[in-house]
Amino acid sequence: MKAVVQRVLEASVTVDGQRVSEMGPGLLVLLGVGKGDTDADLAWMVEKLALLRIFEDADGKMNLSLEDTSKQLIVVSQFTLYGDARKGRRPSFIDAMEPVAAKALYERACEALRKRGLTVGTGIFGADMKVALVNDGPVTILLESPPKAAPPI
């Protein structure tokens, strides 16, 4: 799994002119699911998102997590994080998980974050979404679940 994590003062997601999620301070997460991602990747990403210390404490140091601050997040599905543009001019998305399985993993990630007591907004999987945000800092972190061990030869 890959994620672009942005600390925001506010964020919203609009689909077909309808606001489907909005929040004040917290995290906006663009989440991509790749071929071969498993429940272990999901668990790693959920824990990392919940406990990533990127909010400032009383001394102005990035020392607090979502769970420490009771902040909220919006998680938006983003298969284009798996776009490979190293060759040619059009990105290839062959490393992205197929949509049915990706949607299931994405939804389980959102539910796992809710089970940790976090307020989780979402976009609509597969929809053309308009995402608005006011980045705070700016603070933007790239996360990728640990690589799987190569099979023995």
Q: How is the secondary structure organized here?
A:
Layout: E1 2-15, E2 18-23, E3 26-32, H1 39-51, E4 55-56, E5 62-64, H2 66-69, E6 72-77, H3 99-115, E7 119-122, E8 129-144
Parallel strand pairs: 3-6, 6-7
Antiparallel strand pairs: 1-2, 1-3, 1-8, 4-5
Helix pairs in contact: 1-3
Describe the fold and architecture.
With 153 residues, this protein is an alpha/beta fold. The chain is built from 3 helices and 8 strands; from the N terminus they run E-E-E-H-E-E-H-E-H-E-E. The strands form 2 sheets. Strands 1, 2, 3, 6, 7 and 8 form a 6-stranded mixed beta sheet that branches. Helix 3 links the parallel strand 6 (72-77) and strand 7. It is globular.
Brief descriptors of the model:
single chain; alpha/beta; 38% strand; two-stranded antiparallel ribbon; 153 residues; six-stranded mixed beta sheet
